[in-house]
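Appendix B, record 7
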Amino acid sequence: MKNFSIALLKTLMPLYVFAQKSEEDYCEAFNLIEIWMDAQKDYDMLPGISASAVKGDEVIWSGAFDLANKKTGLSFSTETLGSICSISKLFTSVAIMKLYDDGKLRLDDRIEDLLPWYNLEQRFTASRLITVRSLLTHSAGFAERREYAILGWHGISFPGAGRDY
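Structure tokens (predicted):
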């Protein structure tokens, strides 16, 4: 739920914020963001949370809520440093899609072709080749559809799904 909520906010909020006619109109959007972030913090039982809205190279809004450290009572601020965690995947994905847009790779390119030194033996004979796409979708090495169901990926269909080992 947390990932879906964050993805929804990242998708819809820029549309709402930048659809406004002037910077004066951002106030309503920023109020909505603050309400949502405070509620999301409580829903996910986070000690604190912060975010920024950027237009071009300018930070046009930033906010922080609650505590950076529960033990010491240190407040969370827009200057509080935090772990980047899984968001680094976004940077990698953007870089790969830039290479794709520039025609330097295809999503179905085999990793062995892009990285000649790559030498990982497949554990299962029915596993598909590892491609850029399968790495980006976290499906590399899966052999059959039942593995996706275990992970909750019921609606995704990948080539080779349904084959036995």
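Remarks on this record: The longest strand covers residues 58-69. Helices lie at 2-18, 26-43, 88-101, 111-114, 132-136, 145-150.
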